[in-house]
Design goal:
The chain is an alpha/beta fold. 40% of the residues lie in helices and 14% in strands. It is built from 7 helices and 7 strands. Strands 3-2-1-4-5-6-7 form a 7-stranded parallel beta sheet, sandwiched between helices. The longest helix is centred in the middle third of the chain and has 26 residues. The termini are far apart. The model has no long low-confidence stretch (mean pLDDT 91).
């Protein structure tokens, strides 16, 4: 029996990359998952490979009000939500600051607020916001993206304080350099992938399932006394400087 047997989960941005692997990890641990993203075709592709009768919901969270609509649709489809993974997001887009803020911050806020009452009534809610190491460090090329993730980290702490008395835990996961579609073009730049690996303590980029496993842990009762935390999962990229060999 999985650690999430009988739980009901909603994962946004679940059609590929980190979101897809979060959904896989939750389903493998026994949860029934609602997958949300913009592409119906990609959602169906993922759903066909998951156990526990997953459902798919097409949603564009960059639109105002879409978070509340998604929350209502997920509750209607599954009968309730115990686990919410706010993964949908976008990187820096020149001239699109408002859209980036809308998708990366306002949508998670809206979706969480819309689900909070029924989570409190169920008495076992777990919200996981997908942050980034860019929210902790300054990245010259990602000013708006980094700001949205820093805001999400602050939201994690505030919501943990606000909703803990109702039995709902709120945490974040901050990935570092992960091999996903977001980095597909950048990794083709000669020397970039290996050069960045030299600054990771573990000497390699992360895999999406290594984020999914942390999400599944935070959603489980094994993390029952963890709330208000943003867990950095970056192989030692942010906090550790890997300069050379000492042994």
């Amino acid at each position: 029996m999985g650690t999430l047997e009988g739980r009901l989960a909603l994962v946004t941005g679940a059609s590929r990359g980190i979101g897809e692997h979060c959904a896989r990890s939750l389903a493998q641990q026994g949860a029934r998952v609602a997958l949300a993203a913009r592409s119906e075709e990609d959602l169906n592709r993922v759903a066909q490979t998951l156990p526990n009768d997953p459902v798919t919901i097409v949603a564009d969270l960059a639109l105002q009000g879409a978070g509340s609509e998604l929350a209502n649709a997920a509750v209607a489809a599954l009968g309730g939500i115990d686990i919410l993974v706010n993964n949908a997001g976008v990187s820096e887009i020149k001239g699109q600051d408002e859209m980036v803020m809308r998708l990366n911050y306002h949508a998670p806020l809206e979706t969480t607020k819309a689900l909070m009452r029924q989570m409190a009534e169920r008495g076992n809610g777990s919200v996981i916001h997908m942050s980034s190491v860019a929210g902790v460090t300054g990245v010259a090329e990602l000013p708006t993206y980094g700001a949205t993730k820093a805001a999400l980290d602050s939201l994690t702490r505030s919501q943990a304080a606000q909703f803990g008395k109702y039995g709902v835990r709120v945490n974040g996961v901050a990935p570092g350099l992960i091999i996903t579609e977001m980095w597909e073009e950048g990794r083709k730049t000669p020397g970039l992938a290996d050069g960045l690996s030299d600054h990771i303590a573990l000497g390699r980029w992360g895999e999406p399932d290594e984020i999914g496993s942390v999400v599944a842990f935070l959603a489980s009762d094994a993390a029952a006394y963890i709330t208000g935390q943003t867990i950095v999962v970056d192989g030692g990229f942010h906090a550790v400087t890997a300069w050379g060999d000492y042994v």
